[in-house]
Model the fold of this input.
Amino acid sequence: MGQFEGKTAVVTGGSTGIGLATAIRLAAEGAHVFITGRRKAALDAAVETIGPAGATAVVGDISDLTDLDRLYDAVRARGRGLDVVFANAASASFATLEQTTEQHFDQTFGVNVRGTLFTVQKALPLLNDGASVILNSSVRAGDGVAAFGTYAASKAAIRSYARTWANELKDRNIRVNAISPGTIDTPGLDAVADTGDAPVTTSQFAAGVPLGRIGHPDEVANVVAFLASEQSSFILGANLYIDGGEAQL
Ligand SMILES: NC(=O)c1ccc[n+]([C@@H]2O[C@H](COP(=O)([O-])OP(=O)(O)OC[C@H]3O[C@@H](n4cnc5c(N)ncnc54)[C@H](OP(=O)(O)O)[C@@H]3O)[C@@H](O)[C@H]2O)c1
Done:
C-alpha cells in the first residue's frame, strides 16, 4: 500500500515540470490526482504519463474563478473530499521596474497571487480532516534578482499566505506549508530564461548554486510528497527550501 492510497489530490499546473513530477509521485503512491492547466494536449499527455487510473485532467486557468469551480466540481463528483492541494501553477517573466507594464503586473499577480488564493479558498469545503495544502513559492521571494521583481513579490505574497492560512486552518487539522524551489530544470525555466534582454543558459543558472547544478523536478516532488504526508505532521506554516544551497550558503 502506498502512503497516499485512497487519497485525493489536486495539483495545479500538473501538465509539465514540477507539477507533473509531483502528480506522478503522488499517483505512484496511491493518490488519485486531479491536474489542471490551460493546454488540453499537454494535460492529456500528462495523464498518459501518470497512468489514466491515477489522474483526471481538468482544463483551466487558475486566474479564472469559473475554471476553478469546474475543477472542484470534478473533485466533488468523485465523492471522497480532498486530502492534498499543491497550488503550483504560476507565471514568470522578466521585466525591470522601468519596463513593467500594467498588463505584466496584473498578469503575474492575477495568476500567482489571486489565482493561488482562490485555488485554496475554493478547495476549503472539500478538504478532509488531516488534509495538507502546499503552496509553491520560490527562492526569488527572498532576493532581488534584477528584472524579476514582480515575480519575486508575488512569490513573497505566497510565502506570507502560507503563514496566515496555516493559522486559520489549523483548527480543522489542515496543515498549510510553502516550498521554495531554487533553479529547477523545467520547461518553465527554459521559457523564462528567454524572456529577458539576453537569454540565460543552464550553466549560468548552475553557477549560482552551491551544489554546482540546477535541480530536478523529482527533487521538488520528494519534498511536496513529504509535506503532503503524515511524515511531516509537526510542520506547519513552514517554508522548505529545495535549492542546492542557493539561498542558504
Ligand atoms: N523551475 C524553477 O526553477 C522554479 C523555481 C522556483 C519556483 N518555481 C515555481 O514552480 C512552479 C512550477 O513551475 P515549473 O518550472 O514547473 O513551470 P512549467 O514547467 O512551465 O509548468 C507550469 C505548469 O503550470 C501551468 N500553468 C501556467 N499558468 C497557468 C495558469 N494560469 N492556470 C493554470 N495552469 C497554469 C502550465 O500549463 P499551461 O501552460 O498549459 O497552463 C504547466 O502545467 C511555479 O509556481 C514556479 O513559479 C519554479
Remarks:
- The helical segments are 17-28, 40-50, 65-78, 102-123, 149-169, 187-193, 202-207, 217-228.
- The first helix runs from residue 17 to 28.
